[in-house]
Amino acid sequence: MTSTTDELIRSVALTAISSLVARYGQPLAWSEIAQGFDVSGERVLFANRARGIFKPSQMQRGVLSIKTTIPRVGRGARYADIHEDEGSFRYKLQGHDPNSHDNKRLREAWEDRSPLIYFYGVSESRYEAIWPVFVTSWNPTDLSVQIDVGSILPGIESGRTSLREVERQYTTRQTKQRLHQSVFREMVLDAYQDRCAFSGLPVRRLLQAAHIIADVEPHGIAAVRNGIALSPIHHAAFDAHLLGVTPEGIIQVSDRLMEVTDGPTLEYSLKALKGTRISVPPHEAERPDRDLLAQRFAAYRQAN
């Protein structure tokens, strides 16, 4: 069993990560994670930049967090998780020895069923914080562990999947969908250099990644060429077919919107865009796909 001190650190850490996300939003920059948190007047770290499996020095057993990193261009990822497994994340152990120091700590977390924080890399030095997660399966043969999201663990009752198991699967699936969208957003905002393609707004926290073709559609791939960086108001207008973009990148404003007269935001932020050209990424391979724009513009014309 974990010590009382370990339980206190975990409890404070889960509250602190919640406060950190409330303050900065997701994803968190490494500089924000590196601030750590205080326990009884002592500074405790959330994670270590160089290691994926982390136990702070103040803890006696188990781990506090795990981390998946997207490396800089040209570097290999030290840790790789297999996040496409249905119902669970699969996190790779460090190296090839399941009994190495860090891997043994992760096994202790599995034995104790202790809650962890999962820092999931969505771009270089940016992480989605997922908590609480649990190590629910230890697999030394393939050097991996199974990770599940939520405050509940798998349970089987009378040969049928229990309500807790269904809830766990739903929570993990929802988390994966959120991570999918977060990775897409980071790729698109990086390509557009943190500027709205319609207005030029240069504040990353205020930008979203709009799909040209929705991800539920056959051609709605999660790739930069199917995305446009937009402010929330322009994203909403684009999705509502109040704003359209031709295959050549020219913005069109619907007659419905042009007929409305109500204040400077409408006049200068939306209606004034008519006939202007969207800003595109400097790298040609990351610019909007003309065929996808044509498909989206056909839907805009039909809606109007």
Please explain how this structure is put together.
Strands 1, 4, 5, 6, 7, 8, 9 and 10 form an eight-stranded mixed sheet that branches. A two-stranded antiparallel ribbon has the order 2-3. The chain contains eight helices and 16 strands. The radius of gyration is 23 Å and the shape is elongated. Residues 73-85 and 152-161 have low confidence and may be disordered. It folds into two domains: 4-187, PUA domain-like (Roll); 194-303, no CATH class. It has 304 residues and is of the alpha+beta class.
Per-chain topology:
Layout: H1 4-24, E1 28-29, H2 30-33, E2 37-39, E3 42-44, E4 53-54, E5 65-68, E6 81-82, E7 89-92, H3 101-112, E8 116-123, E9 126-139, E10 144-149, E11 156-157, E12 160-161, H4 163-191, E13 208-211, E14 227-230, H5 232-239, E15 243-245, E16 251-253, H6 255-258, H7 263-270, H8 290-303
Q: Roughly what is the average pLDDT, rounded to an integer?
A: 88
As a percent range, the share of helical residues equals 25-40%
- Beta-strand percent range: 15-25%
Low-confidence stretches: 73-85, 152-161
Sheet/helix structural class = alpha+beta
The name CATH uses for the topology of the largest domain is: PUA domain-like
Terminal Cα separation, in Å? 64 Å
Keyword list:
alpha+beta; 2 domains; elongated; PUA domain-like; 304 residues; two-stranded antiparallel sheet; 16 strands; eight-stranded mixed beta sheet
